[in-house]
Write a structure and sequence with these properties.
The chain has about 240 residues and is an alpha/beta fold. About 40% of the residues lie in helices and about 20% in strands.
């Protein structure tokens, strides 16, 4: 890639290695800790391995943002190569990662690094990263890319259905009684990302009703959708569910 701007993100963007390599995207990994075992997300820990460890250890891991020094190490070779940077990763409402990227930015010449708050998670970030990479490939400078992204950020619509209350309970996001009742009534919470937060949008009963609720919501945007910017993300769903 001979672009004058390099797009940097973090490992929560959930983009495939193929897309990352295609656009020359630099990914800074978050840290995932099980007791004293520390892994680099997407480097020494795959998604499948994460699920295996959760099942094996019967606990959820702790996550940590990359430190400012890690961002400095990621930024420096890009700047020294004469390129500018646009960084966007996990939304500031979910993590302190953006703040650490800002601290790293102050170590470099002003104007060389632009930061964008995605206000999002997972492939909600990924969609923005791909947009940024395409703008860079068109020759846009860092400030222009930032401006364009900040116009798009409020338009990114992310939602997902939770299949089990197990991890919500383990993570302290619901009580044992809420988990029990939700499981008994087969409730599959539909979560949406709104203004840098996760909110429960609906409480459908059964996975099919949960997926139907998502589809209804998507159909309400027909005519306003960017058909080149739609992603379906899942965690080991069955082939039938993916279809």
């Amino acid at each position: 890639m001979n672009n004058k701007v390099v797009i940097v993100t973090d490992s929560t963007c959930d983009l495939s290695p193929e897309l990352i390599n295609k656009y020359g995207i630099v990914v800074v990994p978050l840290l995932v800790t099980f007791n004293d075992e520390v892994y680099q997300d997407g480097v020494t820990l795959t998604t499948s391995k994460l699920y295996e460890l959760v099942e094996e250890k019967k606990m959820l891991p702790k996550t940590a943002s990359p430190s400012p020094s890690v961002f400095i190490e990621a930024f420096r070779p890009i700047i020294e190569a004469g390129k500018d940077i646009v960084y966007l990763g996990i939304g500031s409402g979910f993590s302190g990662t953006l703040q650490n990227a800002y601290l790293a930015k102050t170590e470099f010449e002003e104007g060389r690094i632009e930061l964008v708050d995605s206000c999002n998670l997972s492939t909600g970030i990924g969609l923005l990263v791909l947009k940024a990479a395409k703008f860079a490939s068109q020759g846009d400078d860092a400030k222009t890319i930032k401006r364009k992204l900040e116009e798009i950020v409020p338009k990114v619509h992310s939602q997902f259905v939770i299949d089990t209350f197990e991890y919500l309970h383990k993570g302290g996001r619901c009580s044992g009684m809420q988990a029990l009742i939700g499981t008994m009534f087969k409730i599959k919470p539909l979560i949406r990302v709104v203004n840098n937060k996760m909110v429960v949008a609906e409480k459908p009963r059964g996975k099919k009703m949960g997926l139907d609720a998502m589809i209804r919501d998507i159909l309400s945007y027909v005519g306003r959708l960017d058909k080149d910017a739609v992603m379906i993300t899942h965690s080991f769903a069955s082939e039938d569910e993916v279809e």
